[in-house]
């Protein structure tokens, strides 16, 4: 059985372009492994493929949920499993692409059902709601993981995942990503490639893309999503940048003009990319690490 090709890496590292060109060359379909591109109405801010790109190659798990619907690793695995089975019925394999490290790891290395305890949940939420609650819980995870680099970036950004990870740690003494049954043994059903350009180049790309996203209407998209209740949604509210734009629109941001907002958003993304970069290097031991400076280089390396 031909393995699915999995293209991983930090945001803005040519993953989508590489996946599309690879899918065209091999006659494949693309399955997104991204926790936020799944939402309609957040196309610009989550850097979803353009309509032209979507028309070029069939994509799955892109813009298929309303922002008010929850999404987590279990829901992703359920949806991705069904999509991949359907693709297998008509094609040799799929191209899987995304930067949500926890989702990718769960798919490729296996995912254990995690325990829950209402009393522990209440205790964790009590800490969260207390003085410096978030900082206290983050430090618990960082200490248990052996350093900030070993904590999935999405876990630190997403309060729901942070709380859940602390709950699992309190119950089991282990972190959620340490409970996978095949922690360092990827399934042979997948062949992984991780695009890791020089970080200085990645930062330049992120700054350029942030400017382009704002020119394409990210502010208006965010305004509409916020009016639709984005900031009160169970999952979509964690999409990077939208909270900062909300503060800017309400006059509560340290950024007082568009250039300052652009810089703030770019820096937030660069910080996130740095955590992703470390995560993929350490948490996907079965991946082929590719130091590339273009989609051409990535495609050439993957095709051999």
How does this structure look, described?
The structure is a single chain. With 304 residues, the protein is of the alpha/beta class. The chain has 2 domains: 1-111 and 184-304, P-loop containing nucleotide triphosphate hydrolases (Rossmann fold), CATH 3.40.50; 118-178, no CATH class. The protein contains 13 helices and 6 strands. Strands 3-2-4-1-5-6 form a 6-stranded parallel β-sheet, sandwiched between helices. Helix 2 (51-56) links the parallel strand 2 and strand 3. The chain is globular. The protein starts with a strand and ends with a helix. The mean pLDDT is 93.
In short:
With 304 residues, the chain is α/β, with parallel strands linked by helices.
Secondary-structure blueprint:
Layout: E1 4-8, H1 15-26, E2 30-32, H2 51-56, E3 59-60, H3 73-88, E4 95-97, H4 101-109, H5 118-128, H6 133-145, H7 153-157, H8 159-172, E5 190-195, H9 199-215, H10 218-227, H11 242-249, H12 258-283, E6 288-290, H13 295-303
Summary tags:
alpha/beta; 7% strand; 304 residues
Helical run tally: 13
Number of domains: 2
Provide the gyration radius in Å: 19 Å
Helix content: 40-55%
Tell me which CATH architecture of the largest domain applies here.
3-Layer(aba) Sandwich
CATH topology of the largest domain: Rossmann fold
């Amino acid at each position: 059985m031909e393995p699915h090709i999995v293209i991983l890496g930090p945001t803005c590292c040519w993953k989508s372009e590489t996946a599309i060109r690879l899918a065209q060359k091999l006659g494949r379909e693309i399955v997104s492994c991204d926790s936020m591109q799944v939402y309609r109405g957040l196309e610009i801010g989550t850097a979803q493929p353009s309509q032209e790109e979507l028309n070029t190659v069939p994509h799955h798990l892109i813009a298929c949920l309303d922002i008010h619907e929850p999404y987590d690793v279990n829901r992703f695995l359920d949806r991705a499993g069904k999509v991949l089975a359907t693709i297998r019925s008509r094609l040799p394999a799929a191209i899987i692409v995304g930067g949500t490290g926890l989702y990718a790891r769960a798919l490729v290395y296996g995912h254990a059902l995690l325990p829950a305890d209402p009393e522990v949940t209440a205790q964790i939420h009590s800490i969260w709601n207390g003085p410096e609650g978030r900082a206290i819980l983050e430090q618990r995870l960082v200490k248990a993981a052996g350093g900030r680099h070993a904590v999935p970036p999405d876990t630190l950004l997403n309060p729901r995942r942070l709380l859940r990870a602390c709950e699992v740690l309190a119950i089991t003494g282990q972190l959620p990503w340490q409970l996978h049954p095949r922690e360092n043994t990827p399934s042979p059903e997948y062949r992984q490639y991780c695009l890791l350009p020089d970080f200085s180049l990645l930062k330049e790309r992120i700054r350029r893309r942030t400017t382009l996203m704002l020119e394409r209407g990210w502010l208006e998209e965010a305004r509409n999503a916020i009016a639709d209740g984005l900031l009160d949604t169970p999952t979509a509210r964690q999409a990077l940048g939208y909270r900062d734009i909300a503060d800017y629109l309400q006059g509560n941001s340290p950024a007082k003009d568009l250039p300052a907002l652009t810089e703030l958003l770019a820096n937030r993304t660069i910080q996130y990319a740095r955590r992703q970069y470390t995560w993929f290097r350490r948490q996907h031991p079965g991946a082929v690490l590719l130091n590339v400076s273009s989609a051409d280089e990535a495609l050439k390396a993957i095709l051999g």
